[in-house]
Amino acid sequence: MVEKAPVAGTRERLIAAAEQLLLTEPYDEVSVRAVCAAAGANPAAVHYHFGSKEALVGALIEDRLGPLWAEGLAGASGGRDSVPAVVDTILAPFVELAADPLGRLHLRLLARFVLGRHLTTWQGPWFQMDSWAPLLPELKRSQAAQRWMLAFDLIIMRFGAPEIEDHGMSESALTALRTFVVAGLTAPGEQP
């Protein structure tokens, strides 16, 4: 007797359908109706499961990218001396994603959402700046969160750039980015 593979739930089908559509169509041209049709779901399914197209794409980003950082960052410790290792752990998946067409899609979506400040509620701790603040204990929590936000903005902006998609990031550009981010995160600040 041959076992059938389990059928994906509606939420997972919607995410997979959105991902496939976004591979070939610009974000603005992918409609909620098209996602529901591609997933074989009720026309209201996106709104039921996510609330909006933006929240659906936010869930797609988290589902696909969150696991890439979760393991490496789960054991991250705080303090100025640990920042270079944490930055390396953050950058490694970006380099890997930039080398793959589907990964580049995820990076483009991430750049669009983060840099465009789209309203979506991030669920995973690695997508919330308050989770990062304790890694810079020598700074006030608000200042640490702000620095992490700036660091991620810069990293995401660089990896989401069209020239990176076409040619990848050179080793010297990656080294310069790493050095700049580490320097920004470890620069002296107001005392906590």
Automatic annotation (TrEMBL):
UniProt KW keywords: DNA-binding
Domain called HTH tetR-type: residue spans: 8-68
Coiled-coil residue spans: none
Regions crossing the membrane: none
Portion annotated as DNA-binding: 31-50
The protein's name: TetR/AcrR family transcriptional regulator
Origin species: Nocardia tengchongensis
Higher taxonomy: Bacteria, Bacillati, Actinomycetota, Actinomycetes, Mycobacteriales
